[in-house]
Amino acid sequence: MDFKKEILNLKAKDQFRVLNNLLHTNENYVVFNGKKCLNLSSNDYLGISQNQKLLKQFFESINFSKSNLLGSASSRLLSGNYNEYFELETLIAKLYEKESALVYNSGYHANTGILPALTTKNDLILSDKLNHASIVDGLKLSEAKNIRYKHLDYSQIELYLEKNRNNFENVFIVSESVFSMDGDIADLQQLIKIKNKFNCILYIDEAHAFGVFGKTGLGISEISGNIKDIDIIVGTFGKAIASVGAFVTLSKYLKEVLVNKSRTLIYTTGLPLINILWTKFILEQIVNFKNERENLQNLSEQLKRELINNKLVTLGASQIVPVIIGQNELTLKVSEELLNNGFYVSAVRPPTVPINTSRLRLSLNSQLNFRQLKIVVKIIAQKMKK
Ligand SMILES: Cc1ncc(COP(=O)(O)O)c(C=O)c1O
User: Fold this and answer.
1) Is 108 touching ligand 1 by the criterion CB < 6 Å?
2) Separation of CA 234 and ligand 1 centre (Å)
3) Using one digit for the tens of pLDDT, what is the confidence trace for 135-189?
């Protein structure tokens, strides 16, 4: 690769990315280039990372002289494992009423490590076209054949399985529940029907739903009342839980395969104890965030109505509210206008989203209010008219 040419090419397409230097304040704001902006790009959906009461309570409970508090110094398969990991996994398995759970260092580690470990060349993976990059990378690392079906088009899966199911040993169906860039929601009932009809293994990534949806915050699988029918549920701790890491719930048997074969679990240093303790501390009270969940849902409905009233294009049915702009250049301009007015909103461009669907991804949290969001809509609508 000609590196300089590659950079010039990305710049010419308005697809060049940079790491912004942000100063995070305690109340939903970031300071960027000296300007204080409301942060509408964070996945801290329940506002936990800013919850001073919880942080204080947590730090008061910590024994700061524990040796692996800030680093576990080894893979979990060597000496980087400890009892608190097991306690967390037991808690997760109990919440989901599953046989077992396994903690990974991140959602990226989980999604790139699970499919390659559980599949062989005799298998098939059916994956939604808009599944997250970590799932796509998991497909690439797996020996199985894969088909990326049209977003939410389950008839395509059925048709394919009717003709070809018998050519494969195991068939995995993989979908996000809340899609990270469109904010729309998979039909889990339908996926379960197909899984049962064709004897498949259903794998659902609840990264953006965990903590946010369901009476106790377990995700879309809890709302649909079908946790027990989903073989593999992944959730991440880096979003609504405001921590780091991820989990997978599954049978004891599948867990044993992962512990023995999942390279992203085996060949990496375990998480520091403090992260495991914080995750467990939050998970023990996740059921209590009912008001935050309701607030979030109301805010996203109000915002969507306001966008539509202003003739802007939006998608989805969750706290992720994309405003589709189309061209990269215009998306960057609107994002800049928002920044100048004190709102930090990511401009999401290809390859993260398909060409000509560049967008502003408004990522809500329960601490926001509709008055703030109305101003955002006004700024976008005005800039689009110019
Ligand atoms: C659907 C989905 N799965 C997995 C991940 C990766 O999670 P993590 O940030 O913990 O690596 C993301 C992150 O954005 C995601 O959106």
Assistant:
1) yes
2) 10
3) 999 999 999 999 999 999 999 999 999 999 999 999 999 999 999 999 999 999 9
Quote the radius of gyration of the chain (alpha carbons, Å).
21
Average pLDDT for the chain: 96
For 293-323, what is each residue's pLDDT tens digit?
Answer: 999 999 999 999 999 999 999 999 999 999 9
Alpha carbons within 13 angstroms on the beta-carbon side of residue 73 total 6
CATH 3.40.120.10 is the classification of domain 14-46+289-385: no
Enumerate the CATH 3.40.640.10 domain ranges in the chain, comma separated.
59-287
CA–CA dist 27, 25 (Å, integer): 6
pLDDT band at 224 (very low <50, low <70, confident <90, very high): confident
Q: Is 182 in the pocket of ligand 1 (CB under 6 A)?
A: no
Question: What was the pLDDT predicted at 286?
Answer: 96
CATH 3.90.1150.10 residue ranges for the chain: 14-46+289-385
Specify the ligand 1 atom closest to the Cα of 176.
1
Work out which ligand 1 atom sits closest to the CA atom of 131.
1
Domain 59-287: top CATH class: alpha beta
Q: Which amino acid is at 186?
A: A
Is residue 110 within 8 A of residue 264, CB to CB? The reply is: yes
Question: What pLDDT sits at residue 373?
Answer: 98
pLDDT at position 207 is 98
- DSSP 3-state of 34: coil
Residue 25: band (very low, low, confident or very high) from pLDDT cuts 50, 70, 90: confident
Tokens representing 171 are 């068939």
Of the candidates 365, 382, 240, the residue with the CA atom closest to the CA atom of residue 312: 382
Query: How far apart (Å, rounded) are the C-alpha atoms in residues 89 and 101?
Result: 5
Mutate to test the pocket of ligand 1, among 112, 128, 132, 184 (most ligand atoms within 8 A of CB): 132
Query: Atom 14, ligand 1: which residue's CA is nearest?
Result: 180
H helix and E strand count, the chain: 14, 15
Whether 380 has a pLDDT exceeding 80, the answer reads yes
**Spatial separation of the C-alpha atoms in residues 279 and 291, rounded to whole Å:** 20
